[in-house]
């Protein structure tokens, strides 16, 4: 049995066997399964069973490199093709059916000549997988224009089942994936988004050095336990500030962001995966496809721009099923960045999607009810229980209390400030803060 021989599994996880059987039967599939639930096996096992090549489109070179390295260590012939790759021997070998799994970027897939597809199809292709398929949709949180062109390959890959896989897709995104890839009567699998072993918590912060110090102390407590920690920051400046504060206290922390060179990023990634460093401070550029089972804490320093990206990033926690913790620290200023985020968008639909998801992330932060229930409902999953018992709101008793006095004081302070200074100024006044006061 290939699953046991190559991966060490004697049984399938939920949904894997059904999806693999449909792929072998040459049926198109849409697979929506939470981070850490075993989506990759759905396209890794069929080539080992059929003896044909599996083609996999993936959005990041680093992600492909990780998977190829892991597969090679298991004795599986795997390689990747990138648009900047100069080594022609990989493509030549691929045309003969040498590789069991061949990864490529969407950009590369769209420029490969027809002759390549013809030779490869003749050698034998068992599936064409589109990983991180939410990138296809304008309503998704990582829209990539090149993904929209992948349906053209159906012309060259006749009889090959197309398989779309993602961990984060609302109903609107799922429909867009099916239509964009022209999936024919697809077998649709939507697993539960509920990660029962994860604790979700949110805290509001006043950004500044005092909070950085507080956050670093929280990280130090976490370092004392087992497992690894990922700290996600919204800006490169925050990454460097948190990393510097940790290193000054003797914590060996890695950094990862888009302005680092590729070799520096690869080295940081390698050290983290091999447990040579236990804390990684990074932007959202880090982590897509990270297969590290023992991440015990994922901390967000700032609210992500979409609830989907938050779910995906927090989902890198506790992939081994052991209890793990996800904390999100946000400032009210995080919610004023909608126009900035929309400036990155390419279409009106995408701008609308960004604003809708930013508002959803804001509602998540401000919740006083079950956070798990809110997350699951966002992805269209019904959660019947009113409390999950494993988020900050559900674990704090007597949350409802008379706040009339506090409300009166806050409104009075807002009035005293003239209503011109946002919410932070009245709160600082009530707290007796001396921020901005000239020295005596």
From TrEMBL:
GO biological process terms, semicolon-separated: double-strand break repair via homologous recombination
All residue ranges annotated as the Helicase ATP-binding domain in the record: 20-187
Record field: catalytic activity: Couples ATP hydrolysis with the unwinding of duplex DNA by translocating in the 3'-5' direction; ATP + H2O = ADP + phosphate + H(+)
One Pfam family matching this protein: DEAD
Start and end residues of each Helicase C-terminal domain: 215-366
Listed transmembrane segments: none
EC annotation from Swiss-Prot or TrEMBL: 5.6.2.4
The name this protein goes by in its record: ATP-dependent DNA helicase
């Amino acid at each position: 049995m290939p699953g046991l021989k190559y991966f060490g599994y004697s049984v399938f996880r939920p949904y894997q066997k059904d999806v693999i059987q449909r792929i072998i039967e040459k049926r198109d599939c849409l697979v929506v399964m939470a981070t850490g639930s075993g989506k990759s096996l759905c396209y890794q096992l069929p080539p080992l069973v059929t003896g044909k090549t599996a083609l996999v489109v993936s959005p990041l070179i680093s992600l492909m490199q990780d998977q190829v390295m892991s597969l090679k260590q298991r004795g599986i012939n795997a390689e990747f093709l990138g648009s900047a790759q100069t080594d022609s021997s990989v493509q030549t070998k691929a045309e003969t059916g040498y590789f069991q799994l061949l990864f490529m970027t969407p950009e590369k897939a769209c420029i490969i000549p027809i002759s390549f597809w013809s030779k490869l199809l003749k050698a034998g292709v068992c599936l064409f997988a589109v990983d991180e398929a939410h990138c296809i949709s304008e309503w998704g949180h990582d829209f990539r224009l090149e993904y929209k062109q992948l349906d053209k390959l159906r012309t060259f890959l006749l009889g090959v089942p197309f398989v779309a896989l993602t961990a984060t897709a609302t109903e609107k995104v799922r429909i867009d994936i099916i239509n964009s890839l022209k999936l024919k009567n697809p077998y649709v699998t939507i697993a539960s988004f509920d990660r029962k072993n994860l604790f979700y918590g949110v805290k509001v912060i006043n950004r500044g050095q005092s909070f950085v110090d507080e956050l670093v102390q929280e990280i130090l407590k976490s370092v004392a336990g087992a497992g690894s920690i990922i700290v996600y920051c919204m800006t490169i400046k925050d990454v460097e500030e948190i990393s510097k504060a940790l290193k000054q206290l003797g914590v060996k922390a890695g950094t990862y962001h888009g302005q680092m060179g590729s070799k520096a990023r690869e080295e940081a990634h390698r050290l983290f995966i091999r447990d040579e460093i236990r804390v990684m401070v990074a932007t959202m550029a880090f982590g897509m496809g990270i297969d590290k089972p023992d991440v015990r804490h994922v901390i967000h320093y700032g609210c992500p721009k979409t609830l989907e990206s938050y779910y995906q990033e927090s989902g890198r926690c506790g992939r081994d099923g052991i209890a793990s913790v996800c904390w999100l620290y946000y400032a009210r200023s995080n919610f004023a960045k909608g126009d900035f985020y929309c400036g990155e968008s390419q279409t009106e639909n995408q701008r609308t999607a960004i604003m809708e998801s930013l508002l959803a992330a804001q509602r998540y932060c401000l919740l006083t009810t079950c956070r798990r229930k809110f997350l699951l409902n966002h992805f269209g999953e019904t959660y019947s229980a009113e409390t999950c018992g494993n988020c900050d709101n559900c674990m704090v008793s007597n949350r409802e209390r008379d706040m009339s006095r506090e409300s009166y004081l806050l409104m009075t302070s807002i009035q005293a400030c003239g209503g011109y200074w946002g919410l932070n100024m009245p709160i600082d006044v009530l707290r007796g803060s001396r921020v901005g006061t000239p020295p005596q």
